[in-house]
Design goal:
This protein has about 240 residues and is mainly α. The chain has twelve helices and no strands. Helix 2 runs antiparallel to helix 10 (about 170-200) and helix 8 runs parallel beside helix 11 (about 205-225). The longest helix is centred in the middle third of the chain and has 32 residues, at about 75-110. The N and C termini lie far apart (about 50 Å).
């Protein structure tokens, strides 16, 4: 564990995880600026209590990850470990509130583009991928080399919703392939940077990135099946 912490404290790792956290926060802010963070400036409609809670716990998760990265970079691993309990609670809230928000949005038809029952597979798939990455990250919390990579990917893997709401024409014109592609670009950029610096692909990054990327076409294929349509209809009714 000491070896992993020392690696985390190196300049290479500080740059990757700090900038990765800041980039994820920036993407989330830009994507949800009009409808959440700066909604009063844009005259956006009022939000329900559930949506407010969703925005709060998601924001907390990204800020928490940045805080944890900086604590380790400052060699305050004692505080990092103590805060981990709070992080597990926030992660659970992300899953519970995120799932409830996705289902409610589908019921109300509040989706960015695709029909609600089709789009529902996107946020629910994000929650599943998030749960797997965070769960594995917590399981390997004593292996900091694995833990930190999975936690970074847990942030990157849920950026699709933010990309889907960035008001840039070419992004919106690209639809789901573009939203997924941008998420993959961030994930694979982190993996590539780490691989070049360490001269090997770390298995946690390899399997974690594969989970993110492979889940996307599988979700789109799932939406075309009668089983998904029945399941999604059951969820929103």
């Amino acid at each position: 564990m000491t070896k992993g912490v020392n690696a985390m404290s190196s300049g290479v790792d500080r740059r990757l995880y700090t900038w990765g956290a800041l980039l994820a926060i920036a993407i989330v802010f830009v994507g949800f600026a009009k409808t959440y963070f700066l909604k009063t400036s844009f005259g956006a409609p009022a939000l329900s209590t559930l949506v407010h809670a969703h925005g709060l716990v998601m924001t907390l998760w990204f800020l928490f990850f940045l805080m944890q990265v900086r604590l380790v970079a400052m060699r305050r691993t004692d505080l990092h470990r103590r805060a981990g309990v709070f992080g597990a609670v926030v992660a659970a809230a992300v899953l519970i509130v995120g799932t409830a928000t996705a289902i409610t949005a589908a019921k109300l038809g509040h989706t960015p583009g695709p029909p609600p029952l089709i789009f529902l597979v996107i946020p629910l798939g994000d929650m599943l991928v998030f749960a797997l990455l965070v769960g594995a990250g917590l399981y390997f919390r004593s292996r900091s080399d694995i833990h930190r990579r999975l936690m970074l990917l847990s942030c990157v893997g849920i950026l699709t919703a933010a990309f889907a709401r960035i008001p840039i024409d070419f992004i919106q014109a690209g639809g789901m392939p573009m939203f997924f592609g941008l998420t993959d670009l961030v994930a694979l950029s982190c993996v590539a940077y780490d691989t070049v610096k360490h001269r090997r692909l770390h298995p946690a990054f390899g399997w974690g990135a594969l989970l993110i990327v492979a889940s996307q076409p599988l979700r789109l294929m799932l939406t075309a099946t009668p089983a998904w349509q029945q399941f999604a209809s059951w969820l929103v009714n």
